[in-house]
Specification:
Two copies of one chain form a homodimer.
Chain A (H helix, E strand, L loop, with lengths): L11 H23 L7 H10 L4 E2 H8 L3 H13 L3 E5 L7 E5 L1 H25 L1 H14 L9 H5 L2
Antiparallel strand pairs in A: 1-3, 2-3
Chain B binds a DNA duplex (30 and 30 nucleotides) through helix 4 and helix 7.
Chain lengths: 158, 158
DNA sequence: TAGGATCGTCAACGTGGCTGTCGAAATAGT
DNA sequence: ACTATTTCGACAGCCACGTTGACGATCCTA
């Protein structure tokens, strides 16, 4: 068996990945709060991304996020209450309710993308652009392709 | 302003970090389930680490984890019910209840460390040892030192 | 037209956060 | 030494997010 390196214990790797993720998300939301979106939670940003500019339904959203349609529906309720999403009837299928981003939601979406780009550039300025690209490539090499599972609270907790 | 790279949008970085974290944690718990710890949740492993071999109190645990003493107490309750932790009176301070890992808890702790080392070696085998070390160094350079905040469910959700 | 799928919602529950309160016990101050 | 403050752990109540199960309404198909 290969020897473990005592000065680089394996448990640091997940902690560093989590810390990196958390740093980015916290910085994003600090900036979004300054730009008129103080109520947006980390989860909400991802849901907004999953809804996208074209809209979806609750069931489809649940599939994209890897959660049940009921859980997706509840989250949509909250984002509707916050003014980020709206529901509309589907004229072609009376069972379905289309979920769309409101103008406020689209604004949040656009600003999120811009801030994420800025944060990536900040990392590039610190580490060098090649190291950031290498980091991305390495992570892609060791993770499965189905990245987009966002049931983090339930997954991590219980 | 520096130009954003269209083929490497900023929002991928947090997704890749999260995916890396999640891959490691999922692999860990799949292996722990095989080794006699099927009930251990991701959160529980970190709590166990925070308790450590010497034991603590609920309040101190809450401070280490970045959550309230009440939340820490509840989590301790569940880990006591699962047989990973136990409470004992502090003979020097009747207010305090010492929280210690049981033999079963210490077993989980040891196995977690071993599996994390193995997973890191697996990454090193895929990427090369130098890339893994570089990844760790880079992440350390862009994240604040206070990594150890584990209120992930409440933080992400909210 | 009858039967089966599918969509959204309601209800109940588990887990993990939070705040506020409170009694018991330790510590500090007079 | 006695009071006042602080600290610890627990209880209660609340919110966010996840789950499963059930059930009308609607659509599709046999």
């Amino acid at each position: 068996m290969a020897t473990a390196e005592p000065d680089r214990p394996g448990f640091l790797l997940p902690l560093l990945l989590l810390a990196g993720f958390r740093t980015l998300i916290d910085d994003l939301h600090a900036e979004l709060a300054r730009q008129g979106h103080p109520e947006l939670r980390p989860l909400h940003g991802f849901v907004l991304q999953a809804v996208g500019g074209d809209g979806t339904t609750a069931t489809e959203l649940g599939q994209r996020l890897g959660v049940s349609k009921q859980a997706a529906g509840k989250t949509v309720d909250r984002l509707v209450a916050l003014g980020y999403l709206e529901r509309a009837d589907d004229p072609r299928d009376a069972r379905r309710k289309l979920v769309r981003a409101t103008p406020h939601g689209l604004d949040g979406l656009r600003r999120s993308a811009a801030v994420f780009d800025q944060l990536r550039q900040r990392w590039a300025a610190t580490l060098g652009p090649d190291r950031v690209a290498a980091l991305e490539d390495d992570l892609r090499a060791v993770t499965p392709a189905n990245l987009f599972r966002l049931d983090v609270p339930g997954w991590f907790g219980g």
